[in-house]
């Protein structure tokens, strides 16, 4: 939400699944252990970083286990950069589009991100991180062909996944219709648009719609946007990586909503 972070609702949500997930990396684990909506099942750490990570253990009811680097690596996906700590956590609660719309009604400003066919876990994680920095309420993706929340997404989000829910919907166009009925103005980022991002119309409740790199927004999603804008650069290249574009656009939209 631009202009201030929204309060987390106290209404309990139904867990998305009962399957626990290994989360790794200092910031991702720290945020997960502090999240009252999660439960730690195991925590592994390198003994030589005990002084650094011990304050994190005040938030858990189980005993953290000192382990070797190989022992930690063994429980994680290949190539995981764990920084000496990993935690097996219960899944996040499932939050629906209806929950988000209900929460937004009591907020003076609200900002949501929609991702159309963005499927790379690192891009999704980076966008969630930016969404958390700039106070967005949620990141919405289409359930079909979208990755599940993984350790990669959690690590790249650097703790943002604990603050900005990843909401799955069946149909993005219908989700945009629902958001518009609830007072949101949908802004699509399109390199072919004639309006610059700095000229975006002001709205207290905004949705930033981002398409996959190369393919961009699908026709129906583009048509549901109230406004199409572009990021106007001044250098030799004409486009940004989708996660970088998201960060630039979220910053600009926050300035618009705060002005």
Structure characterization notes:
This protein is an alpha/beta fold and 259 residues long. Helix content is 31%, strand content 20%. The protein has helices at residues 26-34, 50-53, 69-75, 97-104, 121-133, 151-157, 172-181, 219-224, 242-258; strands at 21-24, 40-46, 65-67, 85-89, 110-116, 138-142, 166-169, 185-189, 195-196, 205-211, 227-230. The strands form two sheets. The chain has a seven-stranded parallel β-sheet, sandwiched between helices. Strands 1-4-2-3 form a four-stranded mixed β-sheet. Helix 5 (121-133) packs parallel to helix 6 and helix 5 (121-133) runs parallel beside helix 9. It is elongated. The protein starts with 20 loop residues before the first strand and ends with a helix.
Please describe the structure with a list of short key phrases separated by commas or semicolons:
Alpha/beta knot, seven-stranded parallel beta sheet, 259 residues, 11 strands, alpha/beta, 60s Ribosomal Protein L30, Chain: A
Quick overview of this protein structure:
With 259 residues, the chain is of the alpha/beta class. 31% of the residues lie in helices and 20% in strands.
CATH hierarchy class name of the largest domain? Alpha Beta
CATH fold descriptor of the largest domain: Alpha/beta knot
Main sheet: strand order: 7-6-5-10-8-11-9
Can you write the helix and strand succession as a string? EHEHEHEHEHEHEHEEEHEH
Strand content: 15-25%
Which CATH architecture of the largest domain? Answer: 3-Layer(aba) Sandwich
- Flag low-confidence runs: 1-17
Supply the number of helical segments: 9
The gyration radius over C-alpha positions equals: 19 Å
The number of distinct structural domains comes to: 2
Q: Helix fraction?
A: 25-40%
């Amino acid at each position: 939400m631009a202009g201030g972070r929204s309060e987390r609702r106290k209404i309990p949500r139904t867990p998305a699944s009962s399957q626990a997930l290994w989360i790794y990396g200092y910031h991702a684990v720290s945020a997960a252990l502090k999240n009252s909506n999660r439960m730690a099942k195991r925590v592994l750490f390198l003994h030589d970083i005990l002084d650094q990570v011990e304050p994190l253990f005040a938030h858990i009811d189980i005993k953290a286990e000192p382990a070797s680097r190989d022992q930690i690596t063994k429980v994680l996906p290949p190539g995981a950069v764990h920084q000496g700590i990993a935690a097996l956590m219960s899944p996040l609660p499932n939050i629906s589009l209806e929950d988000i719309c209900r929460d937004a009604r009591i907020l003076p400003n609200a900002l949501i991100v929609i991702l159309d066919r963005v499927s790379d876990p690192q891009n999704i994680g980076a966008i969630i991180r930016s969404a958390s920095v700039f106070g967005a309420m949620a990141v919405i993706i289409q359930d079909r062909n979208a990755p599940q929340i993984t350790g990669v997404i959690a690590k790249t989000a650097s703790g943002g996944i604990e603050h900005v829910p990843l909401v799955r919907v069946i149909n993005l166009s219908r989700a945009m219709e629902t958001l518009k009925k609830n007072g949101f103005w949908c802004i699509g980022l399109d390199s072919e648009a004639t309006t610059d991002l700095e000229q975006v119309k002001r709205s207290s409740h905004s949705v930033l719609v981002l398409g996959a790199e190369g393919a961009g927004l699908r026709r129906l999603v583009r048509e549901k946007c109230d406004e199409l804008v572009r990021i106007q650069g001044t250098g030799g290249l004409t486009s940004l990586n989708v996660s970088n574009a998201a960060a630039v656009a979220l910053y600009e939209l926050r300035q618009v909503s705060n002005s």
